[in-house]
TrEMBL record:
The lineage of its organism: Bacteria, Thermotogati, Deinococcota, Deinococci, Deinococcales. Residues 42-383 form the Aminotransferase class I/classII large domain. It comes from Deinococcus lacus. CDD domains: KBL_like. This is 8-amino-7-ketopelargonate synthase. It comes from the Bacteria. The keyword Membrane does not apply. Pfam families: Aminotran_1_2. It is an enzyme of class 2 (transferase). NCBIfam families: bioF, gly_Cac_T_rel, PRK06939.1. Its cofactor is pyridoxal 5'-phosphate. Catalyzes the decarboxylative condensation of pimeloyl-[acyl-carrier protein] and L-alanine to produce 8-amino-7-oxononanoate (AON), [acyl-carrier protein], and carbon dioxide. Its EC number is 2.3.1.47. Keywords: Acyltransferase, Biotin biosynthesis, Pyridoxal phosphate, Transferase. It catalyses: 6-carboxyhexanoyl-[ACP] + L-alanine + H(+) = (8S)-8-amino-7-oxononanoate + holo-[ACP] + CO2.
Amino acid sequence: MALSLSERLSRELSHLQASGLLISPRVLHTPSRAHVRIDGQDVINLASNNYLGFADHPALKEKAAAYLREWGAGAGAVRGIAGTLQIHEDFERQLAEFKHTGSALVLHSGFATNQGVLGALLQEGDLVVSDELNHASIIDGLRLTKATKKIFKHADIMDLERVLQENDTDGLKLVVTDGVFSMDGDIAPLDKIVEVARRYGAVTYVDDAHGSGVLGADGRGTVHHFGLEHADDVIQVGTLSKAWGGVGGYAAGHADLRELLINRARPFLFSTAQPPAVVGALSAALEVVRRDPSLMQRLWDNARYFKAGIESLGFDHLGSQTPITPVIFGEAPAAFEASRLLLERGIFATGIGFPTVPMGKARIRNIVTAEHTRDDLDKALEAYGTVGRDLGVV
């Protein structure tokens, strides 16, 4: 007799509950900022990806409202039929100029972008070599292709070269890596990756979800951090939902990349275009970051200060190099309990366990932003010290 839907749901939820891995997302009752309200409590927010404070920025809201009034609530169709508004193409030119690439195309999310771009590029007989810690959207995107898939050890250039030496193809060769790894906060050694990839005739594909708006001049990203702009053999993808404060994904690179994706990327072909208000907010984000360099300066000042404080308390943050600061608690129940205790002390920071991170490496991932004050960070560090001692972690 077939398993019923109720039985399947009950079994899976019970298993998650018993494993200490069942999550229930907190609900914010205010806009996403450095301070938010949860369950009637005003707390310091260390859980969002709102690096530059753009999610509730006045300039973004003003331009979003203007586009909403002028262009309407929605685009009305997929881009390839009747959904491409002039503002979509204007923003994509703005984005390509910002990224110093020959072209750019916007999709609906970073996840959809990886599925769309990898699916459009890779064919049977191609070879793709992927970092073992790449984001789930890369993993799922690669699963949908018929390319030969190989893994190299995380950020290990010697192992990347070994894999490329042992595998060859007459098709396209693609080396795929995150720019910034979202759970550990480390930066891919992109200069060395590109050097090795070129030696073996491979193209480099960089998911810069957590690098855009954070690294490089004006926040242009990891590619620019390593001085690799204007390179036609480097493809940049990422989100527009983290530092840029909105929602969406993008692909930027070779001048012909955009045209191929318009014709082959299934998430682009079969999804209604982004609403005008979103386009307006994203356009404003690029304008603001270029005219106000103090935002990135404050972001990095805050990141360095918080990391130094976490280190002095005796926590392990895995040597994070970016504003992502993981604090290791070991097993998932301990990380979830630490998150609960921090919230009691006015700090909103989310516990993360397996399968998002390896077993035994459960953590709280903190992201400081340009909006946080030194007083915010001091209060957070004080709370971490208390919770860490109470749980026997420090």
